[in-house]
Design goal:
The complex is a heterodimer of chains A (303) and B (272).
Chain A lengths: L1 H33 L2 E2 L6 E2 L7 H10 L4 H7 L5 H32 L5 H13 L2 H12 L4 H8 L15 H25 L3 H9 L4 H29 L3 H5 L8 H10 L4 H32 L1
Antiparallel strand pairs in A: 1-2
Chain B lengths: L6 H24 L16 H7 L2 H34 L6 H13 L2 H14 L6 H24 L5 H8 L4 H30 L2 H6 L7 H9 L5 H41 L1
The chains are: A mainly alpha (303), B mainly alpha (272).
Chain lengths: 303, 272
């Protein structure tokens, strides 16, 4: 049946070609531009490949590609390496904080009576549906020097009127912003792992005289590890490239690579350098991304 | 460790939800503040909402955003569902690894990279940037989310129903619309909604891929937020929050009711 095969082929081909054209090809273009030089032209980089000019011109253009931009980005004189390091650091600390905040919540939800679990789950997901930008914006009003947090602390007599806490525009505000915005991404995989756990294991441990805390480390924690990995990767990878949170909550000295890339692109207008920054960011993230993909694919196949 | 909640569980849930909801609640409360000062309460007022409806720029941006989100959600749902079928029903095929990689990677890809790469593509093929380029970009990253949501439903359902239809001579095309689609419909609907809100929400990718003339609501809000907190923005945010909350609750009640009906039908079928 020819039509059957055609239909089958179409179902595969349409999303496949779409993603090839709008996900993979753009990356190849970014890579190519990262090897080009800035130019005052439209588009603002050289060389451009034009097949109509023949094979010789194409080869010539190919010879013009160079790794110059990578040298620029990786030189210690510029702030890029520092920005990569500080992004990884901030994302790493945030991920640990997320795990510490998210785990008890997910654990409590998994222990809650079955009847209220869907409601709890929905309450965790609901903030995720509200705009990311709005949720970050909400913290500006809370953390600013004359903001609600400082007013509360002042009313309680903890701080003086003229010595407000400086939280907004510091790294602390960035941590708070990331933990707040990414919390559902941490809770959901943890909850999924914890909910599946067999409670009788803990009962058995208790019957055999194992104290609850030891039982937690010996049984619950190891069994929840897939959820821990999924949650951490789901938070860590996008947090490294985060732009909105450091831009709105961070200070002028908060260095994150997403913000640097944006500035390089929109203020310095160097498309070639921002492409090189993007390629290197991808290289930094490729190991966690591949790890995450395998986890996802295995999860789907196992069920 | 006994079943049921300990005080520790209750406290952590309560604190967690307080952390999640207090900022949003404060934002909503202060949108009704009479004072222009965001942090000083000066009585209840709906002044800022009226102000908002006279802000033509903001209304234009909202209209662009809604159109982009609607188109995005619809196309992304079709493509995402096709991708989900491929990944759950086709077994191993050449290029599968690449395909599943392209479906999962955008879920965690930093937005600045996706935005930059799509912009450079649009420049390379030299198309006018604006409404359509934002929509293409949004479809690309949201279809992956749709695919994951639909996949999770496809892997859990009883495949013998599909096989029975095929054995009885139903074409694969018809089988999909008569058997598969009705069963996975709740997932398809939540996929659509997810794509819609992701598109509604996106700032970074839209900023990269837009051109003159197409400004979305998040871009407009962002440029005002950079100048400081204003009650007018609080009011705009409150309206968005209200819309999303109502839609999410409505859909979750719908899917729950559908689930109950389905179970009832299954029980009847089993009894008869």
């Amino acid at each position: 049946m020819a039509s059957k095969a055609t239909g089958r082929w179409l179902v595969l081909a349409v999303p496949y070609l779409w993603l090839l054209a709008l996900f993979l090809v753009p990356f190849l273009i970014v890579f190519k531009i990262s090897l080009s030089q800035d130019a005052i032209a439209q588009p603002p980089y050289l060389p451009t490949f034009d097949l109509s000019e023949g094979w010789a011109a194409f080869k010539e253009a190919f010879a013009e590609l160079s790794f110059e931009n990578y040298g620029y980005v990786l030189s210690w004189d510029n702030e890029f390496i520092e920005a990569y390091g500080s992004s990884l650091w901030i994302a790493g600390i945030s991920t640990i904080l997320l795990l510490m905040v998210g785990y008890p919540i997910a654990y409590g939800m998994a222990r809650a009576p079955k009847s209220i679990r869907p409601t709890l789950l929905m309450l965790v997901i609901l903030p995720f549906w509200t705009s990311f930008l709005i949720r970050v914006y909400a913290w500006i009003g809370i953390l600013s020097p004359e903001g609600l947090l400082n007013q509360l602390l002042f009313a309680l007599g903890i701080i003086g009127r003229d010595t407000p806490l400086q939280i907004l525009n510091t790294d602390t505000a960035v941590y708070i912003g990331i933990v707040y915005s990414y919390l559902p991404f941490m809770i959901l995989p943890l909850y999924a792992a914890l909910e599946k756990m067999d409670e009788t294991l803990l009962e058995a441990a208790a019957d055999l005289g194992c104290p609850p805390l030891a039982a937690f480390w010996k049984i619950t924690w190891p069994l929840s590890l897939p959820g821990v990995f999924a949650g951490c990767l789901l938070c860590f990878i996008p947090a490294v490239g985060e732009f909105v949170i450091p831009d709105l909550l961070g200070g002028s000295d908060t260095l994150m690579i997403g913000k640097v890339l944006w500035t390089e692109f929109s203020v310095n207008r160097s498309w070639t350098v921002s492409s090189a920054v993007a390629v290197l960011l991808l290289l930094v993230l490729v190991i966690p991304i591949v790890f995450y993909q395998n986890l996802q694919a295995r999860e789907v196949e196992r069920r | 460790m006994r079943k049921g909640l300990s005080w520790f569980n209750v406290t952590s849930i309560a604190l967690g939800f307080a952390f999640l909801y207090i900022p949003i609640v404060l934002l909503v409360i202060y949108s009704f503040n009479a004072s222009r000062m965001v942090t000083v309460w000066a009585g209840f007022s709906t002044h800022w909402y009226w102000q908002l409806f006279q802000n033509q720029q903001l209304l234009d941006a909202a209209w662009v955003t809604l159109r982009v989100a609607f188109l995005t959600a619809t196309v992304a749902t079709v493509l995402g569902t096709l991708a989900a079928i491929t990944l759950t029903r086709y077994g191993r095929f050449t290029g599968r690894t690449l395909f599943s990689g392209m479906v999962y990677a955008p879920l965690v890809m930093p937005e600045v990279i996706t935005g930059l790469s799509l912009l450079l593509l649009f420049v390379a093929v030299d198309i006018d940037r604006g409404f359509w380029t934002i929509t293409l970009a949004h479809i690309t990253f949201t279809l992956c989310f749709v695919s994951v949501v639909v996949q999770s439903r496809l892997v859990t359902f009883d495949r013998s129903l599909e096989e029975a239809a095929l054995d009885l001579g139903c074409t694969p095309f018809r089988t999909f619309f008569v058997i598969t689609l009705p069963i996975i419909l709740p997932a398809v609907i939540s996929g659509w909604m997810l794509a819609f809100t992701l598109s509604l929400d996106d700032l970074v990718i839209a900023s990269f891929t837009t051109g003159p003339g197409a400004t979305t609501l998040p871009m407009r809000i962002y440029s005002q937020v950079r100048l400081g907190v204003t009650p007018e923005i609080n009011a705009a945010c409150t309206i968005l929050i209200a819309i999303v909350t109502v839609v999410v609750i409505f859909v979750s009640i719908m899917t729950k009711r559908q689930e109950i009906e389905r179970q009832k039908a299954e029980r009847l079928a089993a009894a008869g």
